[in-house]
Amino acid sequence: MIDNRKREWNTEGRYTAGEATDCQLPVCGKEESLEVIDAVPQAWSAVCGKEENMDQSENREVLQERYGLVLERIREMETEGLGHPALDAYFKQMAAFSLKLSDYYIFVEQGHMRDAQLSELQTWNRELYEDILPEHYDQSWGNPAYSVSRMDGQWGQLLSFVYGELRDGIVPAAQGDLEDIVVRMELLVEIYSACVGAWQEQRQLPPYETIRQIAYWHNSDYSDIRAEKVIRRMACPEGNPAVEIIMGADLEDVRYLYRYGLYVTENELETARFLCSLPQETIDTMADTYTEGYRMGFEVMGKDLSKKSTVDLYYNIGFERMLRRAVENFAVLGLKPVARELNVKGAIPNRQYTYDHKDDHGLFWDKALMQRKLEVLKTAYEQYKQELKGYAGPAAVEIFGEEPFAPESRPQAVKLTPEQQKLWVEYSARNMELYTQYITMSERSFTIIAFPVPEIGENFRAIFEENIKVNTLDYMKYRQIQQCVIDALDQADHVEIKGMNGNTTDLTVNLWKLQNPEKETIFENCVADVNIPVGEVFTSPVLKGTNGVLHVSKVFLNGLEYKDLSVTFRDGMIADYGCGNFPDAEEGRRYIKENVLFHRDTLPLGEFAIGTNTTAYVMARRWNIENKLPILIAEKTGPHFAVGDTCYSQEEDVAVYNPDGKEVVARENEKSRLRNTDPMEAYFNCHTDITLPFDELGELTAVKTDGTRICIIADGRFVLPGSEALNEPLEQVK
Hints:
- The protein is an alpha+beta fold.
- The protein contains 25 helices and 24 strands.
- The protein has three domains: 7-221, no CATH class; 241-442, no CATH class; 473-552 and 561-576 and 606-730, no CATH class.
- The strands form six sheets. Strands 17-16-15-11-10-22-23-24 form an eight-stranded antiparallel β-sheet, covered by helices on one side. Strands 5, 6, 7, 8 and 9 form a five-stranded parallel β-sheet that branches.
- The model is unreliable at 1-47 and 49-55 (pLDDT under 50).
């Protein structure tokens, strides 16, 4: 459901909560733009074919009234002044941005996105995002360091958060979602009115807690609306803005990229132009590899694709031509596409801005808010539970080639307290429980494929061509080689891994003990289905007896760089960790805890794998792009170790078989075994792969119970009989 709260002005000019109204259809409240009302997409009036039981004209009137009131007050903000220099500057800037956002919404709703010149669209895009671009960020209220310098402590953090809330209205404006814009503007005006009232009456600011409570209840009150929209976009293919662009836009006219409302740079423009220049055969190869991987994921896992009706697209803008072909392929499989806003990405205006605001919920995160968000999420899931039965899972197109990013840790940014960290961990776990309640994991699958983008440099076209070859390597060749590796590993009690060339890795990984080697296996033979490209063999290690140190000189995890990352395991659990990113070792530990452990004190070693795609490794070395590879490819370029859940999370009881017919029995560990008795302790809802490159790998040896050693890799080369062909690409590395 869309918002049912009405905000009204009291006699003192402050917002108060009014009587509940069922407002649904977005309309325009500007007197000079009333013609826009009739241009609002009619998809708002129906959701998945379910007619809303409301009077649409009444809904229009309510939202129009709210829009008119909030715009009127914001226009007054531009000319009024509190007499407080910092706040006056802040509110005037926020008012200017709000009015710019309103003008943009009207521009979109009047249909100008389709007839405007490219230069005009670029101007709009630049003006909406320019304040947080790196060259302006030092003087931006979006920068918590700047905001705190103007308004001390928590006030500065809160004002920076409100700034971010307004900025997050750009994409909704591009989609014609006036209701979302109004809600964000009302937050600004409510805070402004509270400041005006206190200053006029007492010549001082209101208590900080008064303003924080406004933000708190804004977040709480509208969480149901936002939850409903997220789940609706996940469940229902009808009226999906992104899919409409993929299937309906003129893809030879790059102006279509601006219809998303996302930040667009030359990188996205050139990506779109490049794909349009490719022969149809190449586009077909890219799309067919992607959709066939998705289909094979169901086939290999013995899951019934015919029961499913929707596929969830994840992609970066610029790849629409490939995706159009993919949507046609999915249709043959009986699947319609959905695409959620969070999973459709443009350029990142400023990664530091994103990093600075990742914990803004710490301003108000408490148990009551956690419960509220879980309740509204459950309500949304329940509303669409029938549609969600058809959800087949995500199909992701990742990109790589962006400049590496190592964030600055700013003390002025919001940080979660230890209690909030525990609550966030609990929320993440319970959120996942809800997901698996309505999405049967044993019935869904996924696939991921990755391509470079022009930002990778002057060799983009050559890298792109080579990457296509990497994505389409001989499935059968790798399957046979990997089976040789698995046959050796199945004999082992444990595996020993040691580093070289300055790498201090010295790690013992304990393995599952086979009861019936004729019918069972420890490692899965992973070729090119859900994870493209080939290839790896992987298992869920036994935690007890897994001990030692994993060290990597440089690695990129979840888009962040780690230098000299070191993780110590004790009985399979992280016991210590550190990195060389910061002069202060404790700051490095905080960096890892926030972004790898996700505020937990420890995580298990959920996966041990050996990547076999030496062709991808050589591609990375040839073009000097090791630091730009996505984990999807990087994990195939050497042994890797994932902290968090196993690869079989939530599906441990589903039988998995290798191509040789043997059942993969190592699907759980001592933690995931608690899933039926203590699910909060069984799952961590994260899985982060850390890859040890071949040039830092001195030895990987399978050790049998009698002490017999079977060396698989020595001095960065495969030495196991039957695996030598993997060294052929490595000989190209100088």
